[in-house]
Amino acid sequence: MTRAVILGTGSSLPERILTNAELEQMVETSDSWIQSRTGISERRIAGPGEYLYKVAAKAGQKALDAAGIKAEDLGLLVVATVSPHILMPSTACFVQAELGAFNAFAYDISAACAGFTYGIDLAGKYICAQPDMKVLVVGAENLSTRINWEDRNTCILFGDGAGAAVLTGESGGERGIIGADLHSDGRLWRLLYTEAPPSMNKDVQPPDWKGPFIQMNGSELFKHAVRLMENSVKTLLAKHQLDIGDIDLMIPHQANIRIINNLKDRLAVPEEKVFVNLNRYGNTSSASIPIALDEALHEGRIQPGDLVLMCTFGAGLTWGALLLRW
Ligand code: UT7
Fold this sequence. Notes:
It is a single chain. The chain has helices at residues 20-24, 31-38, 52-67, 91-99, 115-129, 152-155, 218-239, 257-267, 278-281, 288-298; strands spanning 2-12, 17-19, 42-44, 76-80, 105-109, 135-142, 160-171, 176-184, 192-194, 214-216, 249-252, 307-314, 318-325. By secondary structure, it is of the alpha/beta class. The strands form 4 sheets. It has a 5-stranded mixed sheet with strand order 1-7-6-4-5, sandwiched between helices. Strand 4 (76-80), helix 4 and strand 5 form a beta-alpha-beta unit. The longest helix is centred in the last third of the chain and has 22 residues, at 218-239. The chain is globular, with a radius of gyration of 19 Å. The structure holds oxa(dethia)-CoA.
């Protein structure tokens, strides 16, 4: 049986750090409120020239280097993002040009915070059909470009950054993607959304247009996030006759420490098996899991043979879980 394995990972963060103390000067908030309600201390914000595709390509190049693969060996390049460089063409095409991945076809996927997990699952499906294919999946966001900096409900939460993984097929071993349990529910789109720039056709300008920035109903999202990720993890483990005790490392979407702790407690995962870096980067949407995966590897938190669980939740709604053997 062929499984898609991750050959290498990489991540890249903008240099500029925005602290909670700085946010105190911008909106009516406090470091203690932000830390206690979210677990976030600081986040990265793109500075001059740190365009989304540049940060994404840096993460991608690091993943290629770690995998020992040249950009021209890639057959597919997928960028998961909800804050694209421009609307057309895709950010993936900019990243392709930046990396020189000219043998790959390239496109973006839009699945908000679940984008990287959807992307890894997608790469796995291509690889099952064509096992020698090399795929680069990048989760990248410059959410700072989509934030209303006067809205304290959202501006304290989000950050910029990118993470990436290179995958290919491997036969006869245990390594690789075991399976995924992915879902969407478009009925709940109003809980988290970003409007487009003003329409050039006024007949289809959405009513009540407020501006092209993130709008969120945080407390409603919170409840869905915990319940839906818990269900997804349980469904996925049962499908593969695995137990929560078999998991070596859980990498949850980094949105809020209280969501992560709730999920951990409901699933009864010990704290030392949960990876958290939310305090330093905030919520980077599709970049959150690949940045965490890359840091977990660098910190030696993942060893060969380990069972790794990703769980994700975001706008759409989109959510799910993915299991892989390292
Ligand atoms: O990645 C995609 C998924 N995203 C999520 O899942 C986000 C999920 N939601 C959350 O993380 C949390 O709901 C938030 C961190 C956004 C908010 O925390 P909360 O405990 O749910 O607070 P709340 O929205 O219920 O607001 C409580 C109070 C309100 O004041 P009143 O109405 O009780 O007087 C807010 O106005 O906290 C106030 N508040 C703030 N106060 C200080 C909201 N934002 C701030 C702030 N500083 N930045």
